UniProtKB/TrEMBL annotation:
A Gene Ontology BP annotation from the UniProt entry: bacterial-type flagellum-dependent cell motility
Example of a GO MF term: structural molecule activity
Family label: Belongs to the bacterial flagellin family.
Domain spans labelled Flagellin C-terminal: 339-414
Pfam family, one: Flagellin_C
GO cellular component: bacterial-type flagellum hook; extracellular region
Coiled coil: 53-80
Cell compartments where the protein resides: Bacterial flagellum; Secreted
Taxonomic placement: Bacteria, Pseudomonadati, Pseudomonadota, Gammaproteobacteria, Pseudomonadales
InterPro entries the UniProt entry points to: Flagell_FlgL, Flagellin, Flagellin_C, Flagellin_N
Protein name (record): Flagellar hook-associated protein 3 FlgL
Main location: other
Keywords: Bacterial flagellum, Cell projection, Cilium, Coiled coil, Flagellum, Secreted
Residue ranges of every copy of the Flagellin N-terminal domain listed in the record: 15-140
Amino acid sequence: MIRISSQQIFSGGINRLQGINTELLETQQQISTGKKVNKPSDDPVAAARILKLDQELRRVETYERNANLADNRLKQEESALASSVDIIQRVRELAVQAGSGTLSPNDRESIAAELEERLGQLANIVNTRDASGEYIFSGFQGQTPAFARDGAGDWKYQGDEGQRVLEIDDGVTVPISDHGKGIFVNIPKAISVKDTDDGTGSGTPAQGYISGLELVAPKDLTDAFSGATPAVPDDITISVVNDTGELSITGPGGTPDLTPTPPPTVGEEFQVAGIKMTVNDGAFDTVSGTGDSFTLGISDRQSVFGTIENLIDGLQGIAKGTPKGDAEYDALIAESLINLDNAQESLTLKQTELGGRLNAVESTTAFLEDSGLYTQEIRSQLQDVDYAEAISNLSFQSFVLQAAQQSFAQVSRLSLFDRL
């Protein structure tokens, strides 16, 4: 015979009511929060998976912000380069116009004035800042303008050669900046006469000059110095070696000897190592036994600013009307056109590179978006409440609670004294 006290009846009833009420409150919380797992004890396995999925979503969101930043920076740089190309193209048109033989000194001065304006515009573009106020072409020196005028009034690069990179996915990085030195400064320069010597050792310019300077066979230049150090020289020296005007051509340090057979002479067009030219009026001093010497810059590099500044100086400073003056002016225009073409090529190559980076950022962004949507879908399946089911459960639990309360009220009034 099992004895059941009134205390047991009351305790059992209260426990049952509390259990039903707890279930009801949990269902209400699920409906109010929209989540069926509000604490780990609701479903430990699902809670652990949801935690990992939340971490994955935060990772994706971080990389999406990085990808968006990279996209904005690269598009800003792309826009700056496109504007620079437009300016250089206009400068090239002005250089072609300046090459006309019908221009007066006033016409050349007008062209030089517009070139000054274009130079200022180019400087403003290369000193573009990003949204945080940093100069995009200064490398790691973001607080320093990329280009500024030095004491002589020439535009010089002030940044460093750093390149910033940003991680846009696990193990995936993309450069988001390019230093101005690599784009606007280290540009191959047309072959030109670097300096001349009159054979007296005084360092004053020679009276002779070179005309018709043209690189007609670049491969020949490379082949001429095959195995030499450096493989492509910094300069080639042309010297008048006797009073008949015979010329000697040598590489850096006097080697290798590039003089053709038979040796060319002053006033004669010749070609050496793929370079065509004519030495005019080169002189030889029979007393000192030395002659005029010309140095050709082969592997020189020049900034686009230097190219435009030299063109402006030549338009304003070269006096035409003499054979030497005319040849110097013609050489200036020819060299400027080549240097401007090289500058455009440098910018175009960088634009192509930027296009590849933007494609990489775009594809990575699309992958991150897909990954984020897939992760959200899985988390939703584990965490989001089914409102129809939850409301149905709530109604049933409310009914059960009400019935239990009524039943407990009836049972709680029972007593043994009722049977006496």
